[in-house]
């Protein structure tokens, strides 16, 4: 059975994509720690990050760094948070989010999916895409 992330990647479930290539995608978390909280996910459905091949792992982190810089700049935050937890969805993913303090790393503080403001989520995706130079599907805009 496909993971929820595979269903989002395949368009079976909605997602606010901010980056996409043939190996890695990035889309907003529906339960964000802060607006701008993005999940960086390999297209290949691999449960544990330690089971990824070295090239995919490297590329996943390269994209996470780009997204991290985008969220940091879009929110003028001190840092970009980076967490690999891996218990909620059996599909490797990196949580990247704007942060100014350690308390913001607490998943107990996440917005519930039904408590987020849709307009604020759309605005967050737009802000990140502007810093990444990507379109509404997450693809890099060619000049």
Helices and strands in order:
Elements: H1 4-9, E1 17-20, E2 24-28, E3 38-42, H2 54-74, E4 79-83, E5 94-99, H3 118-132
Antiparallel strand pairs: 1-2, 2-3, 3-5, 4-5
Helix pairs in contact: 2-3
Motif (Histidine triad motif): 91-95
GO molecular function, one term: catalytic activity
Protein name: HIT family protein
Describe the sheet with the most strands: 5 strands, antiparallel
Q: Give the strand content.
A: 15-25%
- Terminal CA distance reads 39 Å
Strand order of the largest sheet: 1-2-3-5-4
Tally of contiguous helical segments? 3
Number of distinct beta strands: 5
CATH architecture: 2-Layer Sandwich
Shape: globular
CATH superfamily: HIT-like
Rg, nearest Å = 14 Å
Class of secondary structure makeup: alpha+beta
Low-confidence stretches: none
* Oligomer classification: single chain
Give the H and E element order: HEEEHEEH
- Which fold name is given in CATH as the topology? HIT family, subunit A
CATH first level: Alpha Beta
Organism: Corynebacterium lizhenjunii
GO molecular function, one term: catalytic activity
Domain HIT: 4-107
Motif (Histidine triad motif): 91-95
């Amino acid at each position: 059975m496909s993971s929820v992330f595979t269903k989002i990647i395949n368009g079976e479930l909605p997602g606010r994509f901010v980056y996409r290539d043939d190996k890695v995608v990035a889309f907003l978390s529906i339960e964000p720690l802060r607006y701008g909280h993005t999940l960086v996910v390999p297209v290949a459905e691999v449960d544990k990050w330690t089971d990824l091949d070295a090239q995919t792992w490297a590329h996943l982190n390269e994209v996470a760094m780009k997204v991290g810089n985008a969220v940091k700049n879009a929110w003028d935050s001190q840092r970009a948070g980076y967490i690999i937890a891996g218990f909620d969805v059996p599909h490797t993913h990196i949580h990247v989010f704007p942060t100014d303090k350690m308390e913001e790393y607490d998943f107990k503080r996440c917005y519930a999916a039904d408590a987020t403001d849709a307009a604020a989520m759309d605005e967050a995706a737009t802000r990140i895409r502007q810093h990444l130079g990507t379109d509404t599907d997450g693809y890099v805009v060619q000049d």
